[in-house]
Write a structure and sequence with these properties.
Blueprint: H1 17-32, E1 42-44, E2 50-52, H2 55-80, E3 82-86, E4 101-105, E5 119-123, H3 139-150, E6 161-168, E7 173-176, E8 183-185, E9 188-190, E10 208-211, E11 216-220, E12 242-243, E13 247-256, E14 262-263
Antiparallel strand pairs: 1-2, 3-4, 4-13, 5-6, 5-13, 6-11, 7-8, 7-10, 8-9, 11-12, 13-14
Length: 279
Amino acid sequence: MPDVDYELPTLAPSGHGDDDDDLIVELFRHTHGPRHRLRDDIALNRKGEIVQRGGFTLFLRDAAIIVVIALVISVIIKTFFLRPFYIPSASMHNTLIEEDRVLVNQLVPDLVPLNRGDVIVFQDPGGWLPAAQPEEKQPVQAVVDGFLEGIGLKPEDAHSHLVKRVIGMPGDHVACCNAYGQIVINDVPIREPYIVTDSRDRASGETFDVTVPEDSVWVMGDNRFNSQDSRAHQDLPTKGFVPYENIVGQAFMINWPMNRIGFIDNYSGVFAAVPSRRP
């Protein structure tokens, strides 16, 4: 197809400095002008013919690609990085309350270290939760819920998971209570501003004296007199400890409801003076 609107600039005779400058400008205009812009409204068919691209079809194709990429990214994030859960019970009052939605960092503890005071979500080590009957759902609802849970847009059912605060790390000697009703970790008493206590301001209604084994933690709910935590399961095979392999991750943020959105404090200052001990 001939270029009817293209015309090479005329070379000026040598020795004319101003004309040489005009030539440079003219060459730049012809090289970088609008006629050299990439056009996305036309394409070549299989016969090598120039055809007009369908605007709406192109839009649908691009939209489908964007949706697929977004779904893939969501699945990757939910599988390896972040996972949403909802809080079904009162055991973590007042840090977490019923129907709170939390985000869990799944890099803890495999890649990011676990610390005393972290709030964690973990799978039932065995015998902590009663057997739950699966909720009956209509087929369409079950498919939709499964899809939304799979891509991380809906918190998963917490029937086999629990949420508690880490009090004892591997090797820690944890005991309760001293004369002031405080928990003592490695001979250091701690003052816990995040717990709900009884009228006597005790950190626990039950006494205990344990040493945390390797690759396990001792956990307790913040609502100390309404929490079935490590204290209540010392007669089980794991003796109340939660193995690292059962930890899903650290709950670091409340993301719903709107009026409770915020980060979950691990109160690192409470445990700052506690020395570490090897198991």
